[in-house]
Amino acid sequence: MLKIAVFASGRGSNFQSIIDNIKNGKIPAEVKLLISDNQDAGVLKRAESENIEHLFIDPAHFETKADYEEELIGLLKNAGVELVVLAGYMRILSPLFVRHFKNKIINIHPSLLPAFKGLNAQKQAVKYGVKYSGCTVHFVDQGMDTGPIIKQAVVEVKEEDNADDLAARILKKEHKIYPEAVKLIAEGRIKIEGRKVKIIKEEK
């Protein structure tokens, strides 16, 4: 059973969608640890209600980012974590951290990468005038939203949309494809070849 840690900074709706899919038997995994950099994050209460170990680790208590990440690495090692799931985690991980967990960190981004990287992707999409946007689950590498893509879902951008309208519809798709991506990894059905992620067909 795959051992997971989730990093989150906000409400934790993607965290909840993964937990729900684990509880109903769809994902052969266990969330060992929830880590947040935000003391007031709603995700901490979600983890508490699910009896999952949860920690607020304040980056301000560390002299350097390297010290902060060393603390995180130690916690993950002690918990035997095999996959780090970023679910609205509002910090950029250093190359050192990413190398330490190479091909073992995934993220979900609210656009169809490689379009609209970085912050406010939904606002970028509306402003640009695209007809379709969506969300992307990808492995984390040392770039900004540049890692190999695991899954994507498409959402139509309506003429009357503002960024919040689009974000709400994209979030529904996120709740579907993020658990699906975790399931593929937990079942050992992912193979990375350069920039491409190949999905191994499920044995019947």
Quick overview:
The chain is α/β, with parallel strands linked by helices. The protein has 2 domains: 1-101, Rossmann fold, CATH 3.40.50.170; 107-204, Formyl transferase, N-terminal domain (Rossmann fold, 3-Layer(aba) Sandwich), CATH 3.40.50.
Fold and architecture overview:
- This protein is an alpha/beta fold and about 200 residues long.
- Strand 1, helix 1 and strand 2 (about 30-35) form a beta-alpha-beta unit.
- The longest helix has 24 residues, at about 165-185.
- The strands form two sheets. It has a seven-stranded mixed beta sheet with strand order 3-2-1-4-5-6-7. Strands 8-9 form a two-stranded antiparallel ribbon.
- It has helices at about 15-25, 40-50, 65-80, 95-100, 120-130, 165-185; strands at about 1-10, 30-35, 55, 85, 105-110, 130-140, 150-155, 190-195, 195-200.
- The radius of gyration is 17 Å and the shape is globular.
- It has two domains: about 1-100, Rossmann fold, CATH 3.40.50.170; about 105-204, Rossmann fold, CATH 3.40.50.
- The protein contains six helices and nine strands.
Helix-strand layout with pairing:
Elements: E1 2-8, H1 13-23, E2 29-36, H2 42-49, E3 54-56, H3 65-78, E4 83-86, H4 95-100, E5 105-109, H5 121-128, E6 132-139, E7 149-156, H6 163-186, E8 190-193, E9 196-199
Parallel strand pairs: 1-2, 1-4, 2-3, 4-5
Antiparallel strand pairs: 5-6, 6-7, 8-9
Helix pairs in contact: 1-6, 5-6
Domain Formyl transferase N-terminal: 3-182
Active site: 109
Binding site for N(1)-(5-phospho-beta-D-ribosyl)glycinamide: 12-14
